[in-house]
Structures are given as C-alpha cells and as structure tokens.
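Researcher: Hi, I'm a grad student and pretty new to this. My advisor asked me to get structures for two proteins we've been looking at. I'm not sure of the right format, so I'll just paste the first sequence and hope you can take it from there.
Model: That works fine. Here's the first sequence with its structure tokens right after it:
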Amino acid sequence: MKSGQLRTITEDCTYEGRKVAVEKELDLQKFNVRTDLALEAKELAERPGSGPIPGIHSETTEDDGITITMLHVENEQGSQAIGKMMGQYITIEVPGLREGDTKLQDRVATHFATHFETFLQRLQISKNARVLIVGLGNWNVTPDALGPLVVENVMVTRHFFELMPDQVAPGYRSVSAVAPGVLGITGIESSEIVQGIVDRSKPDLIIAVDALASKAIERVNTTIQIADTGIHPGSGIGNKRKGLTQDILGVPVIAIGVPTVVYASTIVNNTFELMKSHLEKQNGDTNQIFGLMNGMEENERLQLVREVLSPIGHDLLVTPKEVDQFIEDIANIIASGLNASLHDAVDSSNVAAYTH
C-alpha cells in the first residue's frame, strides 16, 4: 500500500471491564483523491520545498491561451509516487474553450494533431498501419458520451481498403472505429468486445477515447490528455474494470481522455481554498476560522472531505450545466485532430474543416 494511505488513530476499547486506549491503523485508500490526469496526480504527490519527484520529468509550454505539459513517468519509483503507469503523458489545457471560440477550437485541434503525431512516431507506427479507434462510454449519458461522439466524427476508411483498395487515393490509411457501449447496456465488458474485434480485424494500433474525472473544476471540459499507457474504462468514477492496454490486447494503445466530471468533495475543497484566499486578502489571518484545516495539505483535506461525504452518499459526480455543448465541441476537436494526424491527405492547418 502506498504511503499516505494509512493513518494511525487512537480508539477507546473495553478490556476486562476497563477502558483502554488502543492504537490502530485506519485504511484511507478508499478515501484517496481520484483523478485520471497524470498532471493532477503529480500535483497531489508534490510537497512544498521538496524538489522534483524522482522518476518524473515534466516540461510546460504556453501558446496564447493553450498550456501544454509533457510528463514522462520514467521508472517504477515515479509510477509509485503519483500512482500512474510508466509512460508518456501530454496534457493540453485551454480554459478559453468554455467561451465557445471556434478559432481557438481550431488552434487546439491543430496542437492536438501535432502532439498526437509525436506519439505515432514514438511508437514507430508506419503511414500504412491499420488503426482502430474505440469510443468508450455511454452514449445515453452526456458527460460519458465523449467516446461515441468522437467515433461519429472521425474519418473511417477501412471498408474502402477492403472493398476497393485500388481506388483509395494516396495519403489515407485504414481506419476503423467502434463504440462498444458500457457493461450496463451490453452485459459485456468493453475490453472483451474490443478483444474480439482486434482478433478479427488485426489492427496495428488502438486509439481509446474516454471521459475522465478531474480534481479541479477549472479543468473540466477544457483539458485533453494523451497517453501511451492505455486506458481503464470507468477508472475515473472508481470502477475496477479490465483495461485496454498493450499487455491485454497485444497491440499498442494510445489513450485520449477529457475530464467531464468532478466530485462534490473536490468542489467543497476548492471552495475552502477560495474562502481562505479571500479571507487572507481581507485580514491576513485565517487560523481563527479554519483552525487545524488551515495547516492541512490539499490531499489530506480532500481525504477528510471524502471521508465525511462518502458514507452518507453525498460525494456526487458533478458536471457543468452547459455540458451538452462542451462535449460536442471537444469531441469535434479530438476527431478533427485525429483525422489530420492519421491521414496525410487531410490539411493539418485546417483540420476543423473535416468535421464541422
């Protein structure tokens, strides 16, 4: 069990008619902060003044409202420190996406296409490699419909290569796409459906698209993560499911995710931070109001809030009321970026024209 998942507490017990104090360890694993973003996991693992986390290397660049963080989990030590698999992660943060600026959306799609191509090169995926795009999620639930919406908008070409290969123009590759649904609809694990498709269609690469969970309200529907580690359906909401990874499927898997939900405990904790910041500006002293919580680290405070909310069923999953438009916009961004990065014939300078 990772450090920070156990807490020693003192409990009064009755022994031979007398009350005695007994120390025991409380398992906090079920109260740990859940986030699918490697960047957030790194932020939670960092300690003020402790320096870089061993085994984790990250670089951040900015381009007029678009922040790109490249994070490399280099070894097992780094993996254990942040609770993420070893591999490469790219996070594209664009707070301005909430404003519905179509020009900004086109710029984000171009950035996405450029960085996705680096993953293809790193995995040595050739120009004629066959690609299967898997849109995970429940198309009946808007915050979970990202994967199916991306599948609707990507350019699929495998049938042309199968039926009329001599008529396919240069600059295209064989791409197929499927939205396998969720266990509650099909009664079958998504990974089992994908495994059957992989066995028959023999793709050289799988691209899995899924909705994620974040610990930060400002990152919901404004952030895209690309990872070469595969994906575990339902992990963001605490489900333990068989994942889509190279070890399981025998094919390289690139995962694309967007946080579309946040926990109520996160909102409570973020509200605490905002109140603390506001009061510090007013009188500079917050100890009288917040007491012991003032000295807690963020992950400790989040654990405490979840410890209170979870037993009474109040740690709800929350999504913005404008999620319908957000999810459609960001699905178009990802689909157009994929079209440009997978097909050389698609103009990468105007990727949005292929889905809008």
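Researcher: Oh nice, that was easy. Here's the second one.
Model: And its structure:
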Amino acid sequence: MERMLVTVRHGQSEWNLQSRFTGWKNPGLTPLGIEEARSVGRELKKRDLAFTVAFTSALLRAQHTLDIILDELGQTGIPTLSEPALNERHYGDLSGMSKEEACRKWGDEQVHLWRRSYEVAPPGGESLKDTSARILPFYCQNILPHVLRGGPVLVVSHENSLRALVMALEGLTPETVPQVEIENGAATAYRLNADATVASKQVFRG
C-alpha cells in the first residue's frame, strides 16, 4: 500500500502573467498555463499512477488544470470534488491589484509581509493562518482518509493553499514557512506512513 498524495499547483493564469493578486477571482489559464498542465499530466503518466479520486478548488484555473491532467492521464472518469475550502487565500483589498501598484500604495516591506508571513492578513483578506484554518480540517476529514486507504490521491490547488498543507505535512513553523514557494505547474508526491506522517517526498515539474 503506497498511501500516496500528489499535489499540483495550477498552471499559469492570466493574472499570474500580469503579476496581479488573484485570490478568489477567476481568470483563466494562459497558453503557457495550459501547456504546464499538460506537461505535468504527462510526467504523472510516466509514473503509472492510477488515481482513486481527485480534489480541486472552486476556482476555474485549478479546475481547468485538473481536467487537463486527467485527460493526459486517460483518467477522466475518476471521482472528482471541487471544494471552496481548497481555494487560494483571499487577498481582500489587494485582489486584482498588481504587485507594483500595491507596493506603491503600501510599501515593499508591508506587501512582502502580507504575501509571505504566516499571521499577517492584507486588509479585508486572509492570512496564511486563516487559510490553514479552512484547508486543514477539510484535508483531515476528506482527503487523508482516501490516502490512508491506499490512494493515490490527486489535489490540484493554489500556491498558498498548498503552502498551508505543506506546513502541516512537513512540520514547518511560522518562521520557516515564508521560504516555501511553489511554482505554477509544480507537482509534489508524498508517500505517507500509516500514522499520516510523511515517509518520502519528491518534487517534479513536467
């Protein structure tokens, strides 16, 4: 029994390309983002993974990425669940604003703190701590049981959603999690022990 969890960040979105804070907004994938999804799907196919179930957020860029991956795998018939608990963190007043505009308005240091820290939320938005508070219960109650039954399970989500999950899986602290960055189209395969701790980890891109 492998007990495998594979996480993927969605392919590049139109607002990733424009360096805009996206959060719960719904821009589509760019042509590069579509290719990133295809590429990671092909990479997963090389590993002969037959997923039992797939989870994604309620946002189109993650759903589209999942659809492309499953098409590449020839596994479009597996059960899938789109869940708002897996959404990207909400950026509040920053949503739709470019990183450059935000830095001009609030300063580089403050914007960096909102983007990378654990507990500091942008105005009207969520901190990484807030994001963890909705993602981790869903993971424990809905995703982990599938993994522990043998998996493999696929989760396609967003950078901060996955940072919150990585923090829990890898035992990171509020001081170490700011260094975690997850690229568009990047996949991570975790093999879990029977007690749900991580036995091994492999990061790859298509």
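Researcher: Is there anything I should tell my advisor about the second?
Model: You could mention this: DSSP finds seven helices and six strands in the chain.
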